[in-house]
Design goal:
Blueprint: E1 2-6, E2 11-16, E3 19-24, E4 27-32, E5 38-51, E6 54-68, E7 71-76
Parallel strand pairs: 1-7
Antiparallel strand pairs: 1-2, 3-4, 3-5, 5-6, 6-7
């Protein structure tokens, strides 16, 4: 799936990922290929992106995640 993590200042991550875990306001959300469409607010925490079997962690202060058609956009603070 295509993942973009964007802040007001820059694009933090853009590329293909196997899995994504984001800190939803009601708990952690795991996102894989073919995930159902979703929009959720995010709380402070870490976004974990798995690519090539390796995890990358990005700290955020909140934001919004949108999942649609194997594209995930994280608008982070």
């Amino acid at each position: 799936m295509q993942v973009e993590i964007i802040t007001p200042d820059t694009t933090v991550f853009s590329g293909e990922a196997e899995a994504l875990v984001v800190p939803g306001t009601d708990g952690l959300l795991g996102i894989l290929n073919s995930h159902a469409p979703l929009i959720s607010s995010l709380k402070e925490g870490e976004v974990k992106v798995t690519t090539g079997g390796q995890d990358q962690l990005f700290a955020i202060n909140g934001g919004v995640v949108e999942v649609q058609n194997d594209k995930v956009m994280v608008l982070a603070e």
